[in-house]
Structure formats: structure tokens, C-alpha cells
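Fold this: UDP-N-acetylenolpyruvoylglucosamine reductase
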Amino acid sequence: MINTAELKENFGDRLEENVLLRDFTSLGVGGVADYFYRAERVDDLVGAISFLSRKEIPYFVLGGGYNIVVSDMGFPGVVIKNEVKDIVFSSDSAEVIVGSGVEIGRLLMDAASRDFGGLEFLYGIPGTIGGAVYGNAGAFGHSIGDFVKSATLVIPGDNNRESKIIRHTAKWFDFTKRSSKLKEFNKLHPNENNPIILSVKLQLCQSRKDVILRKMRENLKTKKTSQPLGVKSAGCFFKNPGAGKEQAAGFLLDRSGAKRIRVGDAIVSKIHANFVVNKNKATADDIRRLAGQMKDAVRGEFRTNLDEEVEYIGKW
């Protein structure tokens, strides 16, 4: 049983109760979080995680709300909204240390204004830097993991040991396509309090603002022709089971007739079959059932199993 008075004493006026999570997810689905707290500084984020893990209170750290499907039943604990927005550039080394709650687009524009490039391939990908590193976001043959030098994380404690802050190099993350050691660990231990990224050091490169912005515009133009932008979607829903074009999840789903599948207001995009779209008032249950039917279609047609790139959050 969660002690509300104890939570309010620790978090103060920034603790909210019974917050509807669909307003914070790109799919526009999700039930009520028992408690909701906005962490605006690194100290806030570390303090919240340390307190909740010590008290053994369930929590989930929410970034931009992409690549997740939050249950209609909501989250039985505390949702921590990561709003850590610090950015520090090093002109001499073309490096940047960026808070995990910084939006990808903001970092790219701030970097371009200083003639720093390298991450143009991320333009048009929504979400935060923490989420991008966690899922090794990328496009056009590049991934953010290629630019990570190190990251600072908080390792949650419990009622017997304190939380601790550590720094790991990129090698520790064991980046693979659209995944990392952190994401794989969470998949294996979904009910544990797992490490959270606080900040990331990225290696950029010297360029010119006009060149950087031109690349960003070109990349976004390409995305608009091949992906359903501006709709309620979590991004690519499934991982590609292989490296070739004919092993791409979108190709397999398209050839298996998945674009014809619909569950309530949850549909498969006509532009790209690996995008699930909330057409209007789809529920999380609609989306998960649609995903199951999409997997069945590919399994029946190609004898191939698709694994979700998105994560299911909350009580199912």
C-alpha cells in the first residue's frame, strides 16, 4: 500500500494524483497513473528514483512518450516525467553533454547554431535523447549509439542499499540495431527498477549551419514520403527480423496483407505497414490486439516471428 502522505512530504506540490497518461504518449492511449511527478533537474530525477526504490514503490520514468504503449489500466505507482533539459557544448572538442530529457529536435537545432553536425539523420525522429540512446534510435544507416562517448546513469537501490550514480562508455551499452543493453535488460526484468540514463556525452563534428540545416531538411523530406508523420503513432512497432530489404518488418507486414487489419480505431498505416496508428479513439487494448494479429499474419505467411520494438507499460 502506497503511503500518499509520505509521498507528498517527499515530493511536495509537484506531486500530482490520478493523471491521465494518454495525454503524454504519442499513441494517445493510456489510463491513469496513481501519481505523477515532473523531474526538472538531475537532482530531482536522482532523488525521486532513490526515494521510490528505497520504499519499494513502483515507478516508471517517462520521456517523450514514444515507442511505448501504456495500458488502459494505467500505472499503479509513480510516473516520473523526465524534464531534465541541460545542454553543455565543448567548442574545442565538438562534444556535448546533454540531459536525458532534452528533445532530439532541440539538441539538433542548438548544435547547428554552433556549427556542430553529425546527427542530422535523427531529424524528424521524435522523443528525447535518453529514449534515443536507450533504443539506439537511427535512420539512413546511422544510429545514435555511433556518436555516444559515455553516459551517466543512476542505479536504483532498495531498502538495503543506496542508489548510486555511475558513468559508462559506449562499449558498455552493447548497442545493436534499435536496442541497447539497457533495453534488453528491461525486457528480461520488466518488474525490476532498472538503471536510468541521466545524461549523455555525444561526439559531434565541425560543419556549417547552412550545410547541417540542408541535410536535416532533405532527411525530413525523405521521411515524409515513406512514413506517416503527424499522426498518433509510436513509430516503428516491430523490429526488423533481418538486415535485408525482404527481411524488414514493414516489407513482411505489407506482403502478408497487414494493411487490411483493423481493431476498433487502431489501424495499420497505408504508408508504412510497420506503423500502428490511432485513427481516433483507439484503446491500448485495441492496439495490442492489432499487433497480435499483425504478428499472426507474418507468421502465417512467412513463418517468421516479429518482436516488438515498442514496450508495453503499466498493468495489463
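The radius of gyration is 20 Å. Residues 87-225 form a domain with the Uridine Diphospho-n-acetylenolpyruvylglucosamine Reductase; domain 3 fold (CATH 3.30.465.10).
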